[in-house]
From TrEMBL:
GO molecular function, one term: UTP:glucose-1-phosphate uridylyltransferase activity
Organism name: uncultured Sphingomonas sp
Annotated EC: 2.7.7.9
Entries under PANTHER family matching the protein: UTP--GLUCOSE-1-PHOSPHATE URIDYLYLTRANSFERASE (PTHR43197:SF1)
Reactions the enzyme catalyzes: alpha-D-glucose 1-phosphate + UTP + H(+) = UDP-alpha-D-glucose + diphosphate
Name the UniProt record assigns to this protein: UTP--glucose-1-phosphate uridylyltransferase
BP GO annotations: UDP-alpha-D-glucose metabolic process
């Protein structure tokens, strides 16, 4: 097995951002703890990673983000009280990490997504790893990362999840210069962070799921700040193009950008409409409006 096909066991969750678009909600609560129906965003991302075969979860946290790690702990008092009252513990079981499954590292200053990923370098070591941004809630079966792993097992190397974005929105995404397309896979020839619509090389925008080779960490060692003065993951990934296989994959899933108010509301509605216990009431309310 060549290095670029090593199995994927680790996933990095950068959760140290400030979440300024959702203030004041995110003043004291991490954005990734915001709840869609009955689970925080981080739970959806962790479920998706576990389904894709990930064995080690690496959270890159910052100040005020400890509740994300606590959430996956065993809540002894709560469990013992519920047991005494004869209540089911089923809902709590999902949110428990196994011994050693979850590791957290700190990003002491929010210097950008590339910097957050780099903070996980010692835990990642020399293995390929996934990156999941929990504020992109991906609704799909199988999950988005599982679909990416399926692509990874075919082509190896580096894979970003991508979707066509509106021309006027290119300035909010990393945009791909596309090469040959084969089914849902497009060869990546170049990548640029947040280009203005008139200079964007395409409308193929990178969204919050990645499978990366460990060499990106050595590039990040040297990475200077880019767009917005932040250390950009896109700039570091772009330097691997030509040295390692690099593809963008379109997955069969709906992305909800929960880092944005509208996206967050729509995610709640969309997921509620999928649930038998909630859909009739929600549908009735929407129809009445
Ligand atoms: P965003 O671009 O959504 O930034 O980050 P943000 O700070 O969280 O939110 P706004 O724009 O101020 O509202 C995308 C992902 O990268 C993480 C965030 O936590 C989020 O999961 N991130 C970003 C970090 O972990 N560290 C950083 O320095 C920047």
């Amino acid at each position: 097995m060549t290095d670029s096909f090593k199995p994927l066991r680790k996933a990095v969750f950068p959760v140290a951002g400030l979440g300024t678009r959702l203030l004041p909600a995110t003043k004291t609560m991490p954005k990734e703890m915001l709840t869609v129906i009955d689970r925080p965003l981080i739970q959806y991302a962790v479920d998706e990673a576990r389904e894709a075969g990930i064995e080690q979860l690496v959270f890159v946290t910052g100040r005020g983000k400890s509740s994300l790690v606590d959430y996956f702990d065993v809540s002894f008092e709560l469990e013992s009280t519920m047991r005494k009252k004869g209540k089911s513990l089923e809902a709590l079981e999902l949110s428990r990490a196994d011994f050693g499954e979850l590791i957290s590292v700190r990003q002491q200053q929010p210097l950008g997504l590339g910097h957050a990923v780099w903070c996980a370098r010692h835990v990642v070591g020399d293995e390929p790893f996934a990156v999941l941004l929990p504020d992109d809630l991906m609704a799909g079966t199988p999950g988005a990362l599982a679909q990416m792993v399926e692509a990874y097992n075919r082509v190896g190397g580096n894979i970003v999840c991508a979707e066509e974005v509106a021309r006027e929105k290119t300035g909010s995404y990393g945009i791909v210069t596309p090469g040959a397309t084969n089914g849902n896979l497009t060869e990546v020839r170049g990548m640029v962070e947040k280009p203005a619509p008139d200079v964007a090389p395409s409308r193929l925008g990178v969204i919050g799921r990645y499978i990366l080779q460990p060499e990106v960490m050595s590039v990040l060692d040297q990475q200077e700040p880019g767009a917005g003065g932040e250390i950009q993951l896109t700039d570091a990934m772009a330097k691997l193009i030509g040295q390692q296989p690099f593809h963008a994959v379109k997955v069969d899933a709906v992305r909800h950008d929960c880092g944005d108010k509208t996206g967050y509301v729509l995610a709640t509605l969309a997921l509620a409409l999928e649930r038998d216990d909630l859909a009739p009431t929600v549908r009735e309310f929407l129809a009445s409006r």
